[in-house]
Design brief:
- By secondary structure, the chain is α+β, with helices and mostly antiparallel strands.
- It is built from 17 helices and 14 strands.
């Protein structure tokens, strides 16, 4: 057998072996997969070289030489692999893949289907080899592409080598050597020497195999880039900020991470093999915790259970924690162990206490504010009442009395707020009962003559909605009591308030004498009606008057969200 062909065959065998080795070193790693592809391609090209070197005829030699036009994909793969290894971000752009592989594809298609790359075959002392084409343009372009892609790949790895430390530096050294060594030797044997009319056996496949061997040795020696799930899990457990303990089925501590040892102030060997209860503040704390969770429901063995508990350090300090318990089960759903992952919530508890104290102080303050506002409004109402005694004009007196009722309607809201547990919302059904009782008393209405009907849903309205809504009801009910019923006339005043989804419908009606004909209430000069229109707009509502057998106002509105005052 031709000894030069034998070298190519050995390169073919070695490349396929190395490709299989690198791929199975870590099948999930992108770099391993692409290096394996490179090995397979170089191995296939080495096999092609083996075939054409020992071909029995010119035709067979040319057939195999024509297949060797796959070579331009090798520098493309080298460039791609170097970008992956150096973690270059340009690979996120899909156009980069076109830039890397399109030149190789074009050169291959032109070379395979024409004689622009392989000009023919000639017999040399090492076997058949290629002849340079008469038109060297495509051959020169392939050479330029090989040099550009190869040197770019090597330069990227060299720069990465200079910037890296420790294991990364060693990894870069083997990748760099595996890329540059074949490139330099191939450049000399396939381009430089033939340009001087000195033909020597092509060393590209053999040296590419040597380069791949360097990379494979680096993978074997320095364990790169074999980042497995086990390695990752081990690293996460050792560096995670949460503490972790693993218990066996007898609830003995099997292992713990450094965070657990630090928070409990124990050495790892002091806890391994001990009962899990040793680290809990309460007696039989672990047993009671598991009894209320995992032991109580075997059907939930695959669930994650979060519980608040207390641990005790070696020095006896109590530490509040949040524990996440997750059982480890066998294939028959039998309990094998328990994973405990937790967080120290000591600072969170302090912040909670501080917030709770601050909230209580604000609640007291807010209660006091509502109480004082109610008292001040009551004082204003009393002052208006005192002042009204000195007013002789009936029109002026009515204005004072109207203002007094408006102030009272707001005072009732603040009274309800400071007496309730919710300082932002008012029980509006209760509020309407208090307001109408006050108005009937204020206007000296006999409830046997003018009856009141209230149909209100159980609603809690925000203060920003309750105050304008209360003033609207105050104005409309006051108008009904003052003007709808002449002396001696019986009648009825009704109030309805219902909610549907996010919208509210308020109806205030009476069966009195009704409004004067041709009165446009929206253009009325009455202060009360103008106030009703303004307040309706304030709560994003619209108002409609139905003047049929009395007076009926329908108001659709939306609740105004309460805005925090602190």
């Amino acid at each position: 057998m031709n000894p030069y062909a034998l070298i190519s065959f050995l390169a073919f065998i070695l490349c396929f072996f190395l490709g299989n080795f690198i791929y199975h070193k870590n099948t999930e790693n992108q770099l391993n997969r692409w290096v394996a592809v490179l090995c397979i391609l170089v191995g296939f090209l080495a096999f092609i070289e083996f075939e054409y070197r020992q071909a029995p005829t010119l035709e067979k030699a040319y057939f195999w030489l024509n297949l060797s036009t796959l070579w331009p994909f090798v520098p493309s793969l080298l460039l791609h692999i170097s970008l992956i290894f150096t973690k270059n971000k340009i690979l996120k752009n899909k156009i980069v893949y076109i830039i890397i592989y399109l030149p190789a594809l074009i050169i291959f298609l032109l070379g395979f289907n024409t004689d622009l790359l392989i000009g023919g075959a000639s017999q040399q002392y090492w076997g058949w080899t290629y002849e340079f084409p008469q038109n060297p343009l495509l051959f020169n372009l392939m050479s330029i592409w090989t040099l550009f892609a190869g040197f770019t790949a090597g330069t990227l790895c060299f720069i990465y080598y200079l910037k890296s430390y420790h294991i990364k530096r060693l990894q870069a050294k083997y990748i760099f050597t595996g890329l540059y060594l074949p490139l330099i030797v191939s450049l000399i044997s396939d381009l430089v020497l033939p340009a001087t009319s000195l033909r020597v056996p092509e060393m590209t496949m053999a040296m590419s195999t040597v380069g791949i061997t360097f990379i494979s040795y680096g993978i074997w020696k320095h364990k790169f880039p074999a980042l497995t799930s086990a390695v990752v899990a081990d690293k996460i457990v050792s560096t995670m900020s949460n503490f972790l303990l693993i218990l066996d089925q007898n609830r003995d501590i099997l292992t713990l991470n450094q965070a657990a040892a630090d928070i409990l102030e124990y050495e790892e060997q002091e806890l391994v093999g001990k009962q899990g209860d040793i680290i809990f503040a309460q007696k039989n704390g672990l047993a009671s915790l598991l009894k209320s969770t995992i032991d109580s429901d075997l059907s939930s063995l695959n669930s994650l259970i979060n519980k608040e508990s207390q641990l005790k350090t070696k020095k006896g300090e109590i530490i509040p924690v949040i524990l996440s318990l997750s059982p480890i089960v066998d294939e028959n759903s039998g309990l094998m162990g328990i994973v405990c992952i937790g967080s120290d919530i000591k600072d969170l508890k302090k912040a909670e206490d501080k917030i709770r104290t601050s909230l209580e102080e604000k609640e007291v303050l807010l209660q006091e504010v509502h109480h004082r506002v109610k008292n001040n409004l009551q004082i204003i109402s009393s002052l208006l009442n005192l002042q009204s005694r000195y007013i002789q004009d009936e029109g002026d007196l009515e204005l004072f009395r109207d203002s007094q009722s408006r102030v009272k309607s707001m005072a009732i809201i603040h009274e309800k707020l400071y007496k309730s547990n919710d300082f932002a919302h008012v029980d509006f059904k209760e509020y309407i009962s208090s307001l109408t009782a006050y108005l009937f008393h204020y206007y000296s209405i006999d409830p046997d003559i003018i009856k009141l009907e209230v149909e209100v849903d159980n609603l809690m309205l925000s203060m920003d909605t309750a105050i304008p809504c209360g003033l609207i009801i105050n104005e409309l009910v006051s108008n009904s009591l003052k003007y709808a019923f002449p002396p001696g006339r019986e009648g009825k005043v009704s109030i309805k308030l219902q909610s549907k989804n996010d919208q509210f419908l308020l109806e205030v009606a009476d069966d009195g004498v009704g409004l004067p004909e041709n009165l446009d209430f929206k253009k009325s000069e009455s202060l009360g009606l103008r106030l009703v229109l303004s307040l309706t707009s304030q709560i994003n509502g619209n108002i409609k008057l139905i003047d049929d057998s009395g007076t009926k106002y329908e108001i659709n509105f939306f609740e105004i969200e309460y805005k925090d005052r602190f």
